[in-house]
Amino acid sequence: xxxxxxxxxxxxxxxxxxxxxxxxxxxxxxxxxxxxxxxxxxxxxxxxxxxxxxxxxxxxxxxxxxxxxxxxxxxxxxxxxxxxxxxxxxxxxxxxxxxxxxxxxxxxxxxxxxxxxxxxxxxxxxxxxxxxxxxxxxxxxxxxxxxxxxxxxxxxxxxxxxxxxxxxxxxxxxxxxxxxxxxxxxxxxxxxxxxxxxxxxxxxxxxxxxxxxxxxxxxxxxxxxxxxxxxxxxxxxxxxxxxxxxxxxxxxxxxxxxxxxxxxxxxxxxxxxxxxxxxxxxxxxxxxxxxxxxxxxxxxxxxxxxxxxxxxxxxxxxxxxxxxxxxxxxxxxxxxxxxxxxxxxxxxxxxxxxxxxxxxxxxxxxxxxxxxxxxxxxxxxxx
Amino acid sequence: xxxxxxxxxxxxxxxxxxxxxxxxxxxxxxxxxxxxxxxxxxxxxxxxxxxxxxxxxxxxxxxxxxxxxxxxxxxxxxxxxxxxxxxxxxxxxxxxxxxxxxxxxxxxxxxxxxxxxxxxxxxxxxxxxxxxxxxxxxxxxxxxxxxxxxxxxxxxxxxxx
Amino acid sequence: xxxxxxxxxxxxxxxxxxxxxxxxxxxxxxxxxxxxxxxxxxxxxxxxxxxxxxxxxxxxxxxxxxxxxxxxxxxxxxxxxxxxxxxxxxxxxxxxxxxxxxxxxxxxxxxxxxxxxxxxxxxxxxxxxxxxxxxxxxxxxxxxxxxxxxxxxxxxxxxxxxxxxxxxxxxxxxxxxxxxxxxxxxxxxxxxxxxxxxxxxxxxxxxxxxxxxxxxxxxxxxxxxxxxxxxxxxxxxxxxxxxxxxxxxxxxxxxxxxxxxxxxxxxxxxxxxxxxxxxxxxxxxxxxxxxxxxxxxxxxxxxxxxxxxxxxxxxxxxxxxxxxxxxxxxxxxxxxxxxxxxxxxxxxxxxxxxxxxxxxxxxxxxxxxxxxxxxxxxx
Amino acid sequence: xxxxxxxxxxxxxxxxxxxxxxxxxxxxxxxxxxxxxxxxxxxxxxxxxxxxxxxxxxxxxxxxxxxxxxxxxxxxxxxxxxxxxxxxxxxxxxxxxxxxxxxxxxxxxxxxxxxxxxxxxxxxxxxxxxxxxxxxxxxxxxxxxxxxxxxxxxxxxxxxxxxxxxxxxxxxxxxxxxxxxxxxxxxxxxxxx
Lengths: 383, 161, 379, 193
Hints:
The complex is a heterotetramer of chains A (383), B (161), C (379) and D (193). With 383 residues, chain A is an alpha+beta fold. Helix content of chain A is 47%, strand content 14%. Chain A has 16 helices and nine strands. A three-stranded antiparallel β-sheet of chain A has the order 1-2-3. In chain A, helix 4 packs antiparallel against helix 5. Chain B contains four helices and seven strands, in the order H-E-E-H-E-E-E-E-H-E-H. In chain B, strand 3 (54-63) and strand 4 (69-77) form a beta hairpin. Chain B is globular, with a radius of gyration of 18 Å. The termini of chain B are far apart. Chains A and C meet through strand 1, helix 4, helix 5, helix 7 and strand 6 of A and helix 6, helix 9, helix 11, helix 12 and strand 1 of C. Strand 6 (256-258) of chain A pairs antiparallel with strand 1 of chain C, so a sheet runs across the interface.
């Protein structure tokens, strides 16, 4: 399993150093801990420890109406509230068999692609912070993120905790001026990406630090259920937007960028390319959006009176391609107002499975950036 | 869903190819006897028409009414063939929840099984490192089981009490 | 104008000679110099931090400190008060004596090197004839402080930082000294003042091929020597929290900080002295020229920090031993040739040798960066 | 290939952003033909304020028409029941016999508390309210030193006029008013029967 020779030849008898990176550490992206055993600076063992932010989200949902869990999904991966809402809404729609009006589908695609931009810029910025760049890429990323968050605020009333999707559509129609604002942001975005890439992509230090570091082989990635940009950086062509064609993704022409080696650099660059594809989708969807209902009448009734919504007995698994990977919701209904079982398939939690495999044999500094390239959000990992 | 992956088709194929196996269908899911899980898993992962190489989701459900049992649900997809899902379920009794671990087939089950163990107490035999993952080490009980008694702390209610 | 500070000091000395015996005057002169350096140094450090925060903020589309006083000019003072009033924490099990001494040891050498920096015409505190050697010797004493601090803290992060620091500073000392050698070869002196005088009327060493390469080598090695980005591994905050000063708080932490910033300022000052003609320059007073050049280099250091990620420890070592060291040796050779060849041949020859070796050595030292990647855009 | 080419490019990016952060720098960049560098992005908060979007939601408040005793809330407790984090506490106004007291022809709450340190601004209470009695406020400057004295909003603090609502959220208020007017008309026509 571990291909590298992790113990260098030793002439002297040396001692291994056990080190706790986290839970309070600048680069563990929240309260995450890595129990690391070091030989000098080389990682010989690494065990992730999590659960510091665990609030048993799944059990809370079992005591709540279906709508009542919606605002809590915002708080799973708090960078991508919109896609979390969408995944949950899709799972419930699958459970009950609700239809979504045309306009709502378009709004959903707009929101999820904007979320993808938000997430990918932010994570690239954080990755660079882990690499030791003093906040410049992060703040450039945040500058652009801010513009998109303003759009979210205009549409949903909140910048991050959107609570915007509803079963059968979205909660409110887009406000006046939203499409124009979104077009402006999207038109500027490639320019920003160019600037961002000029700052980073050719940077020799970045390349030396990230290339051939934290390689994730294709086979291991598939077997370990790794999803999202991480999987595609390893060269596996699997994007649920294409595979499941959920919502209306089959109407847009976009490509899936694939890496070749699966190291940190590939993960970084695949994200950049994905943003460029998202911009393409947005270009089209903002032009084509039809007028009409934003929420089906059934959906309106559910939002107005959540306790009248009792899905039939059964179960459903709805999944989407969230910016971090496959986000799935597994719901079991017993015919009452509360879900009998509500399970989240959190992409960043499962992507952590192979953290140790990627880090072994590298330096501590590499472990930190490999973690950064996995793109975790503790709200989602710990739930 | 294509015809190959329909529950009845999968059931027949599995019963033909894996000797001595009987499966029942419930909804879209196939109920697998706990002791045959690894065989079934390997077959579905490796046999050509299926190639279900990707364990998308693994989670446990606790049923307390009508034949109380703990259930582990597997959602299998194929990254190679881009099809899926095939849903497998394994049922174990609530008082002695032992079943084989599928980590040797799908590495992605590692943390998900740890989570199911932590929250539901299902013991996955053969798991390389079955420890609590979300709750702390000294925690007593398995909080997602339906009979777990929750602490009720509503700050506002307390104030008005 | 040029001799403003020199004549001020002279007048003060003249004044004191009326009251005090002649034999005390050299001591008083020294005391004045010490007092001036001891006052100026904290101010330099404070406004270095202010400048750094402002410049990086501007690079990141922010304002930086702007609440305390106009343009946030009082911010460093507020920070100073904060540092002074903070609780001084010594970890349980720490070596208290070493833990206490380390920050002091960090500041003293940083202050001492100011003695040989020529701030302007006739403005060197002591014009030692081995000034350069003194500077290099003193600036490497800082390693002891870093290691003592890291070891005494009894923290694993501190220890890792300290180990990195020792490895790094010792490695970068070598190319740095070799980069200086070319200047000594050309001037034949170790006195900083004499080196500056040798670069009269815009004959700055940086305008020659060996001087240019020497300057780059010295500056890069100097940046590494004072632990600044992209070589700030000893305190790499994203990996080992704060490296050797993880366990320091309050004034001790401030002293480490001070030592570091003074070191960086002195390094910029020395680079300006050795290669950019020190206080030499037309029109403006000499001390202003020195400050301008030094602050230009300080700006570059800050600019680096605002732009670059950090290297990894093995790459850092590779870069020192496989790239900087051979290049500085080649540079010494080129400087030797320069002395004996006529002007028509030596210019192209020096450029060709230095260019090719620079290209090849960087390629050898950081092999991965040349890899080309292709990304498939799949359906 | 120049050694350090990528580094130099990066340095150029940060330098242009540095220059562009000054007004003179913006002019200079325009002069040499570099456009689209954003420059300063900070909003200096207490002095400059960004106007929140109209739909911006923070904490809920209770709407009254005209005078504070004429509030729309009838203490039906639907919001209390539906609130996901359970931050609303309602008691109906009752007389000694335990019968609901009516005012302006409807029941009213005796207590209406919202624990805003628990509230997560999800707006579900507004969605479910059949009387449009609860709406989202956008006043967010609520810093306080104690938990229960200042951060549990009681009825008096929650009461705000319909005019205030119309002022902060004109579009939504217009919709609500139209809906209420239609309802009033309907009850008016229903009544004679």
